[in-house]
Design goal:
This protein has 12 helices and 18 strands. The strands form 5 sheets. The protein has a 6-stranded mixed beta sheet, with helices on both faces. Strands 3-10-9-8-5 form a 5-stranded antiparallel beta sheet, with helices on one face. The protein is globular. Helices cover 32% and strands 31% of the residues. With 343 residues, the protein is of the alpha+beta class.
């Protein structure tokens, strides 16, 4: 089930048009403390440059070496350390957010633009190392014979710690329990306001002092009775809701619809996804990183056609009263910033 939540989150981001900004399992430095890093499931990065290249469809793997060779006439690729990844291997397995190179300040990733019988058109995009948003997916199962998964609070605290240490926007409490935000300018003078008000001000401002080290933190959670019930928020969910800027809960109905329509009762053109999920596969082709090529096409089509419906699968736990479309707008706003001026 945890893999399901990760895949739904990833393909939602792709359908929101954040494919070129997305990295998977990228290292994140703590704000103000470079001695500690954390791997986060997904991160969105500013795009420095984008390129298009054409690769022969010869039936062999599409390797990082092939892509870099096709790119070398227009990009100084010597500054990048090549990563030994295949965008598509000989078994027709796609690598999502495929990194083909890395420099001190940027990442070089690639994905398909179009596919053809003789030629493939690829997108190659250079991302800044520092993200403007991160996503974590949390889901813990219930062990047989007990009523509650023993690791739920540990998972919640782990996610909460990363969320609280990622960004320059820090959380503080008043004596009466109100949540405020505090952020420091370069002169170390603090700027304090009610948390959500300050977060929105930063996102929609052009104040480089406020935006420079700000990272929006988003948590996607599910566990259907462990984290959350209709009557109350369990301790674990309260911990996460106080830590992430956005906490989004995938409902039972949403997860059930995803499983029913794509795995249990797929239409004829969705059979590729079902076959990629079977337990009899010798290699794992159902993860956020690796996906059967035809199954990827099914997922993209499914999410594109049902986007409005899929956006209704989620409950917004924090900030209260928000809609998921407002999160999408905030991410679009952060992506639009002129990062050369900010950094």
């Amino acid at each position: 089930m945890g893999t399901m939540v990760e895949i739904i989150t990833y393909y939602l981001l792709k359908t929101w048009d954040f494919n070129n900004s997305t990295s998977i399992e990228r290292r994140l430095f703590e704000y103000g403390n470079d001695d500690i890093t954390h791997n986060v499931e997904y991160s969105l990065h500013p795009i420095i440059k984008e390129h298009e290249v054409t690769i022969d469809n010869d039936g062999n793997s599409i390797t990082s070496t092939k892509i870099l060779k096709a790119l070398e006439r227009r990009v100084e690729i010597s500054k990048f350390k090549r990563k030994n990844n295949n965008l598509l291997d000989k078994h027709n397995i796609l690598r999502n957010a495929c990194t083909i190179g890395e420099s001190g300040n940027s990442l070089l990733l690639t994905s398909f633009k179009t596919t053809g019988q003789n030629k493939h058109e690829l997108l190659v995009f250079e991302q800044m190392q520092k993200p403007y948003a991160i996503f974590e997916c949390k889901r813990v199962g219930i062990e047989e014979g007990i009523k509650k998964g023993p690791q739920t609070i540990e998972k919640a605290k782990q996610g909460a710690y990363v969320a609280r240490t990622a960004s320059s926007l820090q959380k503080i409490r008043t004596d009466t329990g109100e949540k405020y935000g505090i952020i420091y300018r370069s002169d170390n003078k603090p700027y304090i306001k009610p948390y959500v008000e300050l977060m929105e001000e930063i996102i929609y401002s052009d104040d480089t002092e406020l935006l420079k080290k700000f990272i929006l933190t988003i948590g996607f959670v599910s566990n259907h009775g462990n984290w959350f019930t209709e009557e109350n928020h369990n301790k674990e969910l309260k911990v996460l809701a106080q830590s992430y800027d956005w906490l989004i809960f995938l409902t039972d109905d949403g997860l059930a619809q995803f499983i029913d329509e794509l795995i249990l009762n797929p239409t004829r053109d969705q059979e590729a996804f079902k076959s990629s999920y079977t337990a009899h596969k010798k290699r794992n082709v159902f993860t956020k990183v690796k996906m059967d090529f035809e199954a990827d096409a099914v997922l993209l089509k499914y999410f594109s056609h049902k986007l409005n419906e899929i956006e209704g699968w989620f409950n917004i736990i924090a900030p209260e009263g928000k809609k998921i479309t407002e999160l999408k707008n905030e991410l679009i706003e952060l992506r639009s910033k002129n990062r050369s001026e900010i950094l």
